[in-house]
Automatic annotation (TrEMBL):
Residue span of region Disordered: 270-291
Biased composition (Pro residues): 279-291
Name of the featured protein: Cytochrome
Amino acid sequence: MTDPQLAHATEFGRMYSRSLSSAPEAPSITTVISQEAKDMTGWAGHMAATELISDSRLGGAVGSPGELRTLARQASSAAERFRDAAAARGDRVHSYAEQVALAALDGSGDPDSARNLLHEHGETAFADRFDQWWDLYGVKPLAAEITVWNHTVGYAGTLDLVAEIGGRVCLLDFKTKGVGRDGRAKPLQDSVVMQLVAGMRAEERLADAASGTWEPWPHTGDEGEQPILLAVAISEAEVVPVQADPTCLRAHWRKFWALRQVWEHSRSVTEQGRALRPIGPPPGPAPQMTE
């Protein structure tokens, strides 16, 4: 996603401030969700091994411990480099989706420039599939890249899109996905439901970042019809929208609330400083050694 004006990188993760001149106060929705530990060591090992055996220099390095160590050291960062490249690609795809929405909303968007950037990286297929989905579903944007805030639980975040689809108000989160061996977009993770329900449970939305002006969030579902929560997987092969099952929202909201408490307590522990300190022997004469 693009960088929201009020988002800041901190030692406690991504946090939001109330205005351009104020300090960060609340963790982002994605920072809260990231408190759930996920073991990625297997994937990281697979990425490193795959890069190593694919390295054209491997044959010549056999028998040379020094050269092998160099190749292994470079391969060990394969997962990190893949992650960073995927994040940059996701930013470009999100930017295109945002520009398309803004162009349709009030004419302020520039999808051509965003598409040209994708073209420079050989990624125009993402834009092509997105355009097909946009037209097929008749998306009518109501707001794009909306920063929201929840005071009761204490978090903030930026939603990709609020739109009307088929006569219903929908909250949408875009996810850029690769293509699996079956030629289909890779599936989305269930954690996106927490992201969507946290967005729906917002209490305010940003009106003006410079002055720190906020207004009530109208899409909580407390009054009238609840919005449809959609996660949209965008790949080079297809766009796959999926709906968060309304019967699951309460459970995922409770999980998000619990993870928010984890973040708070982790921050408190960190701010306390070192929890362990050295201790000397007790006072009194030292015990005598006997043979």
